[in-house]
Amino acid sequence: QVQLVESMGGLVPAGGSLRLSCVASGRAFSSSTMAWFRQAPEKERQLVAAIPWNSARIYYADSVKGRFTISRDNTKNAVYLQMNSLAPEDTAVYYCACDATHYKLYPPTQSSAYNYWGQGTQVTVSS
Fold first, then answer.
1. 107 within 8 A of 57, measured Cβ to Cβ
2. CB-based burial of residue 89 (10 Å sphere; 0-12 exposed, 13-18 middle, 19+ buried)?
3. Number of Cβ within a 10 Å radius of residue 103
4. Pairing of strands 121-126, 10-13
5. Quick one: three-class SS letters along 1-41?
6. pLDDT digits 0-9 by tens, 101-124
């Protein structure tokens, strides 16, 4: 079992920055793929970024490339999402997710591949 606890989001002005963190319990973290998804009102859940266990092949959605950075610290069982140059269209509930299948080289892009989810945290970007 893995439990994921996300940091608080918040209200940020357009152009601002915010860092989300997610801490995982359980022994499987260091071999798992971690990801951040987001869901805006009346929209489908979208993969924002995903990072495999060794941080070698990282995935970013086109909409966040160059602005967001995902990273992980396996010694702390933590994954982070640094969000810069935020825009109103980044407003959403952000979810941390874990695919506990061991040692995948390529992070899955389908939400169904992720076994465990955080509770979600609201990020609102004001224009």
1. yes
2. exposed
3. 11
4. parallel
5. CCEEEECCCEEEECCCCEEEEEEEECCCHHHCEEEEEEECC
6. 889 889 999 999 999 999 999 999
